[in-house]
Amino acid sequence: MSIKSVVIVCLVAMIPFAVSGQTIKPGRIWKDNRGIHINAHGGCVISHGGKYYWYGEHKSDDTSSAMVGVTCYSSENLVDWTYEGVALPVSDEAGHDIERGCILERPKVVYNEATRRFVMWFHLELKGRGYADARYGVAVSDSPVGPFRFIRSGRVNPGLWPMDMSQADRDVADALDLGKYTEWWTPAWRDAIVKGLFVKRDMRAHDGLPAGQMARDMTIYVDSDGRAYHIYSSEDNLTIQVAELTDDYTAHTGKYVRVAPGDMNEAPAIFKKDGKYWMITSGCTGWDPNEARMFSADNIWGPWLQHPNPCVGPKAEKTFGGQGTYVLHVGNSYIFMADVWRPEYPSDARYIWLPIEFDKGSPVIRWKTEWAPGNM
């Protein structure tokens, strides 16, 4: 081999992603091993056994309801993905919680080291009821690719007050009369929300709904000590709540707190760097994109401090046209995952994955038209 050939081989080895085309192109069609656009929306990625596994909502061409279930893909480089099938299929049994045609969103999977099981959580709305039910769903599997076995759905921590409400706070909330706040968005109504009007409402069964806190857009976070937390949009999407999970990650312990009460946040994505917790959320504007929001805390129970929008670049004020769903931790790096929703043609929804940079310790998400995860 000539010296020139050796030099070329060395250069190829140094920049494998650039040469092989292994790059991520945010917002573009992303094909799997079959040449089909990846169908895994509102999801997450985990690393297990030397592979990455991507889980997400399977979207049909003409409806955002769940007609298939939660799909799974695998990869060794975060760029090339192999279709592994449907990890959690919907049911054809009439009246089943995850009956075909229900709303099943934001699936998140974590691995429990103690039980050696994969646990999936998701936002669930029963078939034919719109977004009235605001439930969580949970399923388990012995394999990362499934099949996952559905366990239950429900609301969170029925009959229990948040840990961050003192007895005096609880007394104030308990004295609030829901019947006096029929007109929403007034200053008095918002003040009552902050004080716990909807927390009190949902502690008990009402209007044909079960007791417990509402749970819509959500994520699951496993901390460095192995404790797991369910983070979800609650109180009619007005407040984020953080709830601790049991040791097997399949139920709640009863401990939970509120984050930014009354400020309307959804799509939470959480990660920790250098001992500080960061949470990226969005506002509530339906399928339309809006400005990303960011919070930090030194303790997962708070208090949480809000920071400016972390996005920088074209359409940063609209989160580049997307909405966050997850932050993937890879080695010493972090990847912000977001979805570009297309409700008129749901299966064509796109993905925005971008590396998170840090400026004086604060996360920054810069727009890139193309980038290689191997260069992180």
From TrEMBL:
SUPFAM superfamilies: Arabinanase/levansucrase/invertase. The keyword Signal applies. GO terms for biological process: carbohydrate metabolic process. GO terms for molecular function: hydrolase activity, hydrolyzing O-glycosyl compounds. Pfam families: Glyco_hydro_43. Residues 1-21 form the signal peptide. Keywords: Glycosidase, Hydrolase, Signal. InterPro entries: Glyco_hydro_43 (IPR006710), Glyco_hydro_beta-prop_sf (IPR023296). Belongs to the glycosyl hydrolase 43 family. PANTHER family: GLYCOSYL HYDROLASE 43 FAMILY MEMBER (PTHR22925), GLYCOSYL HYDROLASE FAMILY PROTEIN 43 (PTHR22925:SF3). This is Family 43 glycosylhydrolase. It comes from Marseilla massiliensis.
